[in-house]
Amino acid sequence: MRLERRAHVPLGLAAIAPLAAIAAAMVLAAGLIAMAGVSPLTAYGEMLRGAFGSRLSVTETLTRATPLILTGLAAAVAFRSRLWNIGGEGQFYVGALVTAWAGHFLLAGLPPVIGMALLMAGGMAAGAALLAGPAFLRLRFGVDEVVTTLLLNFVVILFVGLMIEGPLRDPLAFGWPQSVPVDGALRLPDLVPRSRLHVGFVVAIAAAGVVWLILARTVFGAEARAAGFNARAAAFAGVSLPRTIMGVALLSGALAGLAGAIEVMGVTGNVTTTLSPGFGYSGIVVAMLAALHPAGVVAAALFVATIFVGADGMARATGVPSFIADVIMAMSLLTMLVALLFTTYRIRR
Amino acid sequence: MTAVLELDGITKRFGTLVANDAVSLSLAKGEILALLGENGAGKTTLMNILFGHYTADEGEVHVFGSTLPPGKPRAAIEAGVGMVHQHFTLAGNLTVLDNVVLGSEPLMRLQSQRARARARLAAIAERFGLPVDPDARIGDLSVGERQRVEILKALYRDASILILDEPTAVLARPEAERLFDTLRGMTRGGLSLIFISHKLHEVMAASDRVVVLRGGRNVAERRTADTDPDELAELMVGRRVTRPRRQQHATGAPVVIGTDITVREGGERRLDGVSFQVCEGEILGIVGVSGNGQAALGRLLSGLARPDAGRLTLNGEDMGALGPRALVRAGVGRIPEDRHAEGAVGELPVWENAVLERMGTAEFSSRGFVRRGAARRFAHTLIERFDIRGAAAETRTRLLSGGNMQKLILGRILSAGPRFILANQPTRGLDEGAIAAVHAELLAARAEGAAILLITEELEEAIGLADRMQAIVRGRLSAPVAAEQADSRRLGLMMAGMWERDDAA
Amino acid sequence: MMEAFDILTTASLWAAVLRIATPLIFGVLGALLCERAGVLNLGIEGIMTMGAMVGWLTVFLGADLWTGLAVAALSGALMGLLHAFLTVPLALSQHVSGLGITLFASSLSYYLYRLIVEVGDLPPTIAPFRPLAIPFLSDIPFLGPVLFAQTAPTYLALAAVAVLAYVLNRTPVGLAIRMTGENPHAVEAQGLDPIAIRIGAVVAGSALMAVGGAFLTMAAFNSFFPQMVQGRGWICIALVVFASWRPGKALLGALLFAFFDAYQLRLQNVVEDVPYQLFLMAPYLLSILALILVARRAQVPEALMAPYRRGER
Predict the structure, then answer these.
(1) What pLDDT, in 10s, does the model give residues C176-192?
(2) Nearest CB to A326: which of C103, C235, C296?
(3) In the listed set B416, B443, B469, which residue is the last one of a domain according to the structure?
(4) Contact C311 B98 (CB under 8 A)
(5) CA distance C185 to chain B (A)
(6) CATH no. of A2-348
(7) Are B44 and B165 contacting, i.e. CB atoms less than 8 angstroms apart?
(8) Same-domain pairing of B72 and B169
(9) pLDDT digits (tens, 9 = 90+) for A306-348
(10) Domain range summary for chain C, segments of one domain joined by +
(11) How does strand B209-214 pair with strand B161-165?
(12) C residues 286-305 near B, CB within 8 Å?
């Protein structure tokens, strides 16, 4: 038995791969659910109900998908050029923190549309700046960015804690550690009345479109792709690797930072150290399930959001620990890796 | 004579490609058998099957009368087969002794028996006349010394059948002759040898018998004494392919001038005070054995390395500081040494590779967006003009054969009408048909007035194309020699560094 | 200010250094073993989490401590086997697979813990490893309490450094592992199977990582809770680079790191007006700094992260 590279990846196969991966992960997770003494069918039924059973739950799922689309795009953009940005979580938090600060002290009172645009820009700049550091260290000193971005996640969380217990502490929160709130006028308007779903969802979809345009149609996108597939050949053809990698880093960090900004402006209004249930890490799963394609990112983010929102409902109804959502997500990342193998290789005897 | 080794009906397919088609051959004790064939004829595949790196689809290998289990190098080694790979299988960070003893002891032994291994290695090195320092780091050894280690590895495992894959690819001619002397001595001690080659002269000089492979088939077997180079050449290529030859014509003014250039990389002088000049309508051949500074020269002229000392000019203006993109804009075309690693991004479609060097120019982009229509049309014209087969604009570039990929790279640079062309090993790994096509394109560019610097390891290529030649040895260049005064014997000596007395640059 | 120096002379600080270093020593040795064979194992964070949970749970369900440690190692080995299967014969991205293992091993640990253990207001506890005072030696002033009154797994960690260094440098199997990390084709050409060697190294390395995790719940603390590994795995990955892939230097790196950690913990009580988060950040920032200092000089195994497929070169 050996693997043989396919000349072409059939489109159908590429589309089926993530579905097969998800199905395999759900089947494997069914065993774990059964261990809890609950029928997997019942549990998955409850999961669907939890995610789509009511108008409210649908809007919750879309709300949850919004930051995942953006962190997923952040990972996809970086991974395409072999920049291993595992720091989406940290970039999310600095984006959120800068938004809370600027939205409270700096931009309050501006016309809402301008103020919101500036807040998002600020969040993006913060995220981009945070990833620029590891990208610079890789280019200048050859330091592996995997470890630096991972370690910075921990540093950033501590920094957030420091700020919200210090200079950015909300004095009206009765000692609860949370940041000052974003000015009410700068909060993103609701998309659906009486729900938490906000305009940020539309921004995230638009971001996916813009990212696709950049990657597929611009000179920068083509060079970034070439650098990812074969850095030596790209450099030989005159692509500046440092500039391209740094450009990719700025774009990737900005997307994760935007996710943080939008989550604060649209959902919570302020920052706590539990703002993100791992959006940055989940973004990696989203990007891989999407085979690093921007359109796929939207679909994959919806899937991951469904699992998480649904799992909460399922946990309430059946008592299966809601950690099952994390397990399904992790398993689908691993099964997707294998599925991708079969789209690029075929088995020969 | 009894056969020590027999291959019986070996067939190997890679997808639709049949690399070996029912190949049979045998090797007698004490014999030197040459396996001759051009690039892509299936020589290396066949030997990899024999050694167990690959598993054959059909056929069997018999060593001393018993059948080898397929796909197990260990079984081949234990049966007495040793292989000297063309791309040495050595770990550069480890010592000679480490590399030699690996795999010779039971893995679960609690302590390596280093002292005994050291003594045994010294004895073998002594017996076969292959001296090495057992504690030297492989990375610090010369290519010739590494090859010695590679041979010692096989002898240490008591090999009685030795397979050498293109053993002279990395050696200058005097070194190669010495190697064959050593090997000849080994056969008198009972060793049997197969060596792979595509060089007629060494097959004639060193072998007892020749097996010619073409298109994966065993097309002929001759006793070396009963054949001659012309017959072998025709058997190897199968049809009459004549390479185009350079015609005399007048050359123009100097285009690229290098003066006393030194390039340091990783703390070492890769180029050491070299000087050269290339004129309009001229091909300057830089000949040398691989690993003598060609890579650094290639990087220098591709815009990937800067001179640390000396001056490099293009039409009188400094070009030492120009990067790849600026060079292309200034009218320089570059054929890289390794087309897969540097020449093209295999995963991208042909059209993107066709324009990759000039994607940012107004011809192929506007306002940062790629003009996909223009780029695709350009790729179409390249495919037609340069006869790139098996390709459409959308084809993944990695699916092209080596020759067609090289035509794509040639087309990409020639279509811009370059004034200077760097051709770094432009025909490495190509078959005769593709070699002739590449040579014809280079000569056509020369006729149109381009200045061409050709870096090559193949003497025949240099003799067929170059107007003047310089040898490159350990980062230094010899004085130029006009084509008329350069026969292969003189070039061979130059490539071995024997010019310093009379022709110092 | 004097107090900040006084801390340095207390035996309890240096005893804590060894204690804090223990999980790092296991983790960094495990990561080092994987990488010497050519496989980056970013599953380490999850594998340590899994070891912490499984070791604790085994004891909680009635087994003795050593059995718990062994079962923890086994769980790590299983996760390592999964990572090895994905990255070695299937040659999938070591980065992505490793992160997947981390997400999978930690979420599975949380799920199983929640499923099996009733958690009230406080997490349930076990009786952990007790310091093992070695007779006579532990009575030596200062050195006694530092070196000879540690828990058994700490002694095990120190022994593991010596054993791994010996195996890598002095035995045939160690040579095969090092060669596989440098050039797997060379290994195959000598009749050994680089795929089997890589799988073996990753499985063994992952078992060591899990033991490091288990130390957290079975010696350093006595209960399990989510997020308790807190990036120690990632720090181990950084320490491997810092140690230039050598077990002896890895021990040194782990001790140095543990020293800073132990010192900052005590410094928090002495130095006022500095937010505690700044102290907590120090270890992570130090790791990054260490990487910057050594990155250019480090002698990376040449085939690290290079997938090996038979018959491809």
Answers:
(1) 999 999 999 999 999 99
(2) C103
(3) B416
(4) no
(5) 6
(6) 1.10.3470
(7) yes
(8) yes
(9) 999 999 999 999 999 999 999 999 999 999 999 988 888 877 6
(10) 10-115+137-294
(11) unpaired
(12) 299, 301-302
